[in-house]
Amino acid sequence: MTNQIWIYYGKIENLVKEESSKQKRERTAGRLLLLNAIKKSNIQTIQNLEELEQSIEIGAHGKPYFKDKTRFPFFNISHSGDYAVCAVATCEIGIDIQKIQSYSPRLLRRILTKQELLQLEQSEETESFFCRLWSQKESYVKWSGQGITRELDTLEKNAWQESFSIEDYWVCVTAQSACEIECIKEAE
Predict the structure, then answer these.
(1) Residue range 160-165: average pLDDT?
(2) What is the spatial distance between Cα 184 and Cα 182, in angstroms, rounded to a whole number?
(3) What's the burial of 126, exposed, middle or buried (CB within 10 Å: 0-12/13-18/19+)?
(4) 8 A C-beta contact, residue 87 and residue 174
(5) Mean pLDDT throughout 107-112?
(6) Rounded to whole angstroms, how far apart are CA atoms 107 and 119?
(7) CB neighbours of 73 closer than 8 A, spacing ≥ 6?
(8) How far apart are CA 35 and CA 155, in angstroms?
(9) What is the DSSP letter of 152?
(10) Do residues 157 and 140 touch, judged by C-beta distance below 8 A?
(11) pTM score of the predicted model
């Protein structure tokens, strides 16, 4: 049986209007996407953000998970720029979204392997290429549960990954093995 991943995404400003700080809006947008995914799946009776928060715990390196792993799906959330994404799956996953934009050479050297730096130099669209690589690395460390606790410039990924673009963003989802993916847009 092939594992399934449902990716919910939307513009933060259309998902959340009442939160004051940018950080609160981003967090709430991701949680609302997760709540919508749970309601649509009919697997749980969680009805609001308060109930959702009570059902989630945070792992040692910051990865959220449901307390009751037998009744709930796996999930992961990310945000960048104007967008938030939430992946819900039948297996352990990581997801990341990165807005395509320029980055400092210092950041490039901290995140990319020597081989990736060479590939970047040869790329015609360096900003897009870098953001795709960055989303792959972050998705991987979120999937593994390590978070950004290790050096990304030496990271070797040994899992299945799927990258795709949404407007001027790269999204990457990571799982142990190939999955079927369905994308659901929640807010324009």
Answers:
(1) 96
(2) 7
(3) middle
(4) no
(5) 85
(6) 16
(7) 38, 41, 43, 66, 88, 89, 90
(8) 32
(9) G
(10) yes
(11) 0.91
DSSP-derived letter for residue 42 is T
Spatial separation of the C-alpha atoms in residues 4 and 91, rounded to whole Å? 8
The residue whose two tokens read 């297996």 is: 91
DSSP line for 101-146: ----HHHHHHHS-HHHHHHHHH-SSHHHHHHHHHHHHHHHHHHHT-
Mean pLDDT check: name the lowest of 6-10, 18-22, 103-107, 120-124.
18-22
Burial 23-49 (b: 16+ CB within 10 A, else e): eebbbbbbbbbbbbbbeeeeebebeee
Angle between the N-to-C axes of helices 126-144 and 114-122, in degrees from 0 to 180, rounded to the nearest 10: 150
Q: How many CB atoms lie within 10 A of CB 163?
A: 16
